[in-house]
Amino acid sequence: MQPIIKILTSSGAGSRRQMTEAIKQGRIAVNGKTIESFLHPVNPDSDRITINGKFIDIQNKPVIYLMLNKPKGVTSTTGDDRNSITVLDIIPKKYQDFRLYPVGRLDKDSTGLILLTNDGDLANFLTHPRFEQEKEYLVHIEGALKPEEKKKLEKGLELEDGLTRGAELKDVNVPPYKYAIIIHEGKKRQIRRMFAALGHRVLELKRIRISGLKLGPLAEGRTRELTPDEVKALKIINSLEPELKRI
């Protein structure tokens, strides 16, 4: 027997956060009975799970960890705008039946590292604010930052949805990028809004790292599976599991 939240995320039915919310809303049933706890025990070999009355295939499937260097013009959501090309449209066809979900978001005009996986626990660990995972970006802006503007970024800026946490900033020489910035949160279009608050428009934005996972030389538009060592380094599974079960 396994907790239903584990079964659902492993089957690719949705992210841990999405499935927890579906349970709270009474949209998930086991053998015809609506369940109320995300720890509800399930036997994947015999129990029948439905979401909104639709049967979910919960048989064990391979767990996939796929890195993508997202190009411009591609959305990182999985279906908000049917007229847009999404990250799921450009990954190799052999991965398209695994119900992968992007970990975190990059806006349509940004490029760089996207992780796609059907491992709901890892996705939750990398995106939940509680775990404060670092994300590093290269930034090309109009003009140049003044010393006092750099200090404001490092201290935190007041945006319309609240104060940002202090960012780490450094000068780089990676044309056309002049700055690298590290943040520990993920407000919508946060970096673009931070620089705009200082009077600088972001011309190019590229994510190069999530936690310990680095984009490296992967060409734009290309994908590769993570190595076992990369997966192990991200999960640190023995210490992760107790934390995830308390969320």
Describe this structure in words.
- The protein contains eight helices and 19 strands.
- It is α+β, with helices and mostly antiparallel strands and 247 residues long.
- The radius of gyration is 20 Å and the shape is elongated.
Question: Which tags fit this structure?
Answer:
247 residues, alpha+beta, Structural Genomics Hypothetical 15.5 Kd Protein In mrcA-pckA Intergenic Region, Chain A, Alpha-Beta Plaits, 3 domains, 8 helices
Summed up:
The chain has 247 residues and is an alpha+beta fold. The chain has helices at 4-11, 16-24, 87-90, 120-127, 147-155, 190-197, 228-235, 237-245; strands at residues 2-3, 28-30, 33-34, 41-42, 49-51, 54-56, 65-70, 74-75, 85-86, 101-103, 111-117, 135-141, 158-159, 162-163, 168-174, 177-183, 202-210, 213-214, 223-225. It folds into three domains: 2-56, Structural Genomics Hypothetical 15.5 Kd Protein In mrcA-pckA Intergenic Region, Chain A; 65-129 and 214-245, Alpha-Beta Plaits (2-Layer Sandwich), CATH 3.30.70.580; 134-210, 2-Layer Sandwich (Alpha-Beta Plaits).
